[in-house]
Specification:
Blueprint (H helix, E strand, L loop, with lengths): L1 H23 L27 E13 L12 E10 L4 E10 L4 E15 L2 E14 L3 E15 L4 E12 L7 E11 L1
Antiparallel strand pairs: 1-2, 1-8, 2-3, 3-4, 4-5, 5-6, 6-7, 7-8
Length: 188
Amino acid sequence: MPFRCAASALAACLSVLAAAAPCVAQERGRTDGPEGSEWGKGGYSSPGGSHDFSLALSFGGAIQSDQSDGGKYGAPLFGGITATFWPSDWVVFDLSGAYVASGRRFNALAGPRFRVPFLYPVALSAGLQAGVIVLKDAGARFGLSPNAMIEFEVTRRVLFGLGYAIDIPVSDGAGVVNRVFLSAGYRF
C-alpha cells in the first residue's frame, strides 16, 4: 500500500513537471505582430519606441532675490517653451527658452534631466541646465539653472508638470530668479 501511494505521488509530480516544461523554455517573442502584442515577450521598451521628442509650454511666477538689477519692470511672471529629447524614460535632454517679465530677462538653457517613475502616471525629475541669461541692464551672462519637477502623464503622449527652477547668472550684482511653474506638453 505505501508503495502504491508513493508511486501515485511520483507519477503526479512527473506529469506536472512534463506539463510545465514547455512554459520554462519559452522562446523569445516576435515583434512582427499587431501593435502592442509584443509586451511581455522581450519586444519594445516603450509604446512610442525610442528617441521620442516633446514640446512643452510653461508659465508661472518668477521672484527675483535682488530688485536692483531690474526686478521692478513688470509683474512677477514668466513664460517659456521647452523642447525635450527622450533617449529613454530615465534621462531626457531639455532645450528651453523663457522670458521673465519682472526683470525683462531672457533665458536660453540646455541640459539633462533625470527622471524616476514614481507611480505609473507620475514621475519625479531633477536636472541642471546651463546657458545664456540675458539681463536687460547688464547684457548676456552665463547662467546655471538647477530644477526639479513632478510630471503627470495624462496619456502616454500628453504631459502636465509642476516645477521649480532657480536661475543663477554668473555675474556681479545680478540676482537669482526663483521660478515656480506649470507645464503642459505633448510627446511625439
